[in-house]
Amino acid sequence: MAKVEGDSKEPLNEQAVANIYASMRTEINQIYSKITELEMEASEHSLVINAIKPLDPSRRCYRMIGGVLVERTIKEVLPAVQRNKEGLEEVIARLTETLEKKKKEVAEFEAKYKIRIRKGDGEMKDEGGKKEGNAQGVLVGPANE
User: Which intervals of the chain are annotated as region Disordered (predicted)?
Assistant: First the structure.
């Protein structure tokens, strides 16, 4: 109990520190994933906006709303798509701020507990040699050209 008296949130042992660190890293990865997903969605909104902007505003178009395909005019759809894109950009900005805060927390945690990540360059190079084609990404065309 002597270790816990000063700060009730202090981890008790190395395993607890490792678990907390792992959960922090997982949280950062989840935020990265969400930001990427939302950026792709915002990009799709931009493509739609650029495609329908030059068209006649009274022209019919279809929009998916909550899983239902709805027929509207471009004049009605364009502002809604633009608002959605702006909303996505705001969420991306907030998530990016949160990500920076989490990164600082992790850096402080690493410094406080002197955490060094063992697997990194050394193991990654070994795995790269063993699994050449598996973790290299998408391969387009023949490998030996």
Answer: 120-145
Taken in order of first residue, the domains within the chain and their CATH numbers are: 14-113 (1.10.287.370)
The string of pLDDT tens digits covering residues 97-134 is: 999 999 999 999 999 988 888 875 554 444 444 444 44
Question: How far, CA to CA in Å, does 116 sit from each of 12, 26, 58, 102, 124?
Answer: 19, 17, 61, 18, 16
Q: Measured between alpha carbons, how far is 68 from 75 in angstroms, rounded to an integer? A: 19
CA gap 112, 106 in Å, rounded: 10
Render pLDDT for 82-100 as a digit per residue (tens, 0 to 9): 999 999 999 999 999 999 9
* Helix H or strand E segment including 50: helix 14-52
Torsion of CA 40, 46, 51, 54, to 10 degrees: 180
Which tokens sit at 66?
């909550």
